[in-house]
Amino acid sequence: MDASGGLGTAQGDGRGRAGGRTGSGGEDPAGSRPGIVGLPATEIAALVRAGELTAVEVVRAHLDHIEAVDARIGAFRVVRREAALAEAAAVDASLTRFALPLAGVPVAVKDNIAVSGEVCTDGSPARPAVPETHDHEVVRRLRKAGAVVVGISRAPELCLYAATDGPGTVTRNPWDTALSPAGSSGGSAAAVASGSVPLAHGNDGMGSLRLPAAACGLVTLKPGIGVVPGGIGADDWSNMAVNGALATTVADLAVAHAVLAGEQPGPSADPGRPLRIAVSTRSPVPGLGGDAPVRAAVDAVVAQLRAAGHTVVPRTPPITPAAAFGAVVRWMAGAEDDAEFLGIPRAELQPRSRTHARIGRAVRRLGLVRPRTQARFRERMTRFFDDVDLLVTPVTTGPPLPARPWHERSFLANISANARWAPWTAAWNLAGIPAAVLPAGTRPGGLPVPVQLVGPPGAEGLLLWVAGELEARQPWRRYAPVFDPTGPSTTGTTSSGTSPSGTT
């Protein structure tokens, strides 16, 4: 969509209900009922279940907000206005509305899984434009829980990269529109951080949920392998990629995770004892490390954990060069596997992706994707947690990458930028174990700084519990202030003076 307009998101107290103010006069940008945009998903669902709001009111308010702000962000490839309003009306009419955990909650779905009736591009204009005939299982579960899909969020081609852009589009970070929201779930993260939706779907094969959450000040959980249905491309990047959600609160994330995992939503289980938690800031990539704000964020989390009564000990996980190589070759092979699976002619891929797929073909031909590498690494990482409950690490080395047309740059330029910025995420995909990301500090100027929590197989509930404990002790701002009407970005341009539909 190419609507433009002026207003920002509702800002809350950092944790719970947002105030009703979304504009200088307290009204939503397009005249919708004030106070809806910016509410947490759990509160929206409670109000819809109680009959205090209708799903149609909620969805219309968010669609109006998208129309007002998305021209400056470029989070959405498709906005489903008519379809979403019809689906919201169906939620209101449902006899089971009173039991739906996500009743009336607007969500975005990343452009790499099927939404019935919509074209799925996997970020590639070269993919045949054939509408999907059914919902992916993840979408089916969201809808069964009462969520309404308001749009399809943007992703880079084949979901391979740590910035979200493509021909004619550069998706921008709501916290600073000169920066990328990261990738590959960058459109989903930008949608949540701008208040366009309270929850969004994404997936993570090398960090593609955690990096956008890191860039946009959100909370996310990469589940362990097999916890949430996969079905991402050809083979989930050889069992590295998983589906998950992006949110602004841990409570919202916990409900979304339960829905996606087919579990009954409820409070995360208190372990009932102090935890023993490892911390490591050593990068798996030699020569890289976090900058001062990254180190300060880790220190702040360690201090909060100790203040809560937990024991924190320095301990670096044994991520070997062989394990790092195992993750990289799966990423390379994934490009070729997915292009073949999706029927994308290689000659029509972007140059960087063509090279990526060509290397992936060679990887497959040489037999470099070896199941035993993954199995051995998972076993080694599981043993790491024999005497610690969780691990704290940084997520990125510094601020997000610039918002620019990375698809016009070379394969080498893309992968080197990705590797320098994000060395702490891919290992946990190879191991197939859960990892969460949450805001833990800010840079000068307010840009969020994240940390990562990693756990052994089955630790999703514990990760959510600890994330909630940290949220209560160290609350974060839920939405990007860049769209505050009193701020600098109310002129219809980004901070770099360009539209997200153009290039820099």
UniProtKB/TrEMBL annotation:
Q: Where is the composition biased (Gly residues)?
A: 1-28
Gene3D superfamilies this protein is in?
Answer: Amidase signature (AS) domain
Coiled-coil region(s): none
Residues forming the Amidase domain are 57-464
* Low complexity bias: start-end ranges: 485-504
In terms of superkingdom, the source organism counts as Bacteria
What Pfam families does this protein map onto? Amidase
Quick one: where's region Disordered?
1-36, 481-504
Q: Which GO terms describe its molecular function?
A: catalytic activity
Instruction: Please give the family membership noted in the entry.
Output: Belongs to the amidase family.
The protein's name: Amidase
